[in-house]
């Protein structure tokens, strides 16, 4: 099979149906098997994209030019076979995909815009994943203002970008998203490489100059850190909605979903919390161009799009990225030390508020992402660890301990990049721990293994003083029931239990998710007056609760617990020894000369040169 040609059209965007066809020639006689992916790399859940596919038909054209209708037998949820195909036959498969999921993971089409992720759209002959692909996007006649944004290689396209593009293989095709619509395009250059931000759905005015200036600073800081830019062009697809949030990395681009209110406005002054959240998302997805898309688990050397493909290493590839995303806001000069510590404190607060972070090991949380992290339920907060936030805190603690030993996580990551990422060899868990041992000694490598292989308390608070930081824990002023309520706008003010936290007062009293609490000590209570009523009691007091469960009135007695953690704050001590002050300054500053630093550590660890720095704990 020499090439697969896809054709994509949008006859009526209002019906949200994308029409797709693929045409290919068969090299030998027999049965052809076709499949559609069940997941998209970077989002670890079987999403069953085939549930949106319909009206599949097959036409076979012989070498002599005669055409006949054929039949594709569905043999699995995402798999079809076409029997009795002769060598040299040209097969055309047509189908439609219902596209109305405005997320970063699937496909979307409306009269406002289109977002195309190839894993949702492109059925492929199973034996042809490495065959070159050509894809044609047909212009939408009804919307002459629509243009196309993608990093696919253009072959024959018009001024608006509609036409034919090529990809080296199916892997590149499905790793290259496409945005179509009335696009706002903003460009800048980093390390001589063209970068572009395309926005759709903004609808409101915003400070374009500030957004691009800040985004460029982030990209420049990361490019300087790694010492190389591994792509010839980069594209940010920014889709704006009323309340969206999310991102997904790709090899030369990323798709981001954000709320319009996250955008900066002219004259904003200090960056708002919403704007910093958006910049952190940009930073996170851009960092993935190095870490995940090139430096990646060895299990992901070749993606299997048709079944689950677990790894135990998401604590690194997502957790370390989550650590560096906000850190690069500081290193790029967008925020100061205090603002960065506020963001790190938010992560620490989230981890401490969820008991599951001390129940499930990070390696297990990584492996089980397919069935747990992406499928949360009412008891998830008590059972499951978050490999993003807890992984970020472990990364930070590892960084601090490496700095105490004369190295840094920067140095470890740069060595991993130069040894395994630059040439995309894939890295194993053993090789990661070996790199940590080279920089921090075997004892620190064993500490990291314990942190990820067993359930451990968060490690940051015990180490904060070594970086000249103080830890302040603020608790609620009310006794704790150990439950979380459904959001008010979703339940008209009723006290509906959303979660019952493990080990809390509510669990001991027998409360359960979906219980509706209606009275405390026989006094009616709603979400609005819950706190004023609870303020009348103290930790250790026992009160009666009346509640409905499945329509039946019940009563229980609950002994109220100590106030729960409200927030944790990391603050800077002002009186520091010179060594602690230097250590903290170095933490906020990026490792210089990333490419050369990585080379040096590889050479030193391979024994070709004498180490210039020996970690103090190495044994």
TrEMBL record:
Gene3D superfamilies: 2.30.42.10, 2.60.40.3650, Neutral Protease Domain 2 (1.10.390.10). SMART domains: PDZ. Residues 598-619 are annotated as: Disordered. It comes from the Bacteria. Residues 608-619 have a biased composition (Polar residues). Residues 465-551 form the PDZ domain. Residues 598-607 have a biased composition (Basic and acidic residues). This is Peptidase M61 domain-containing protein.
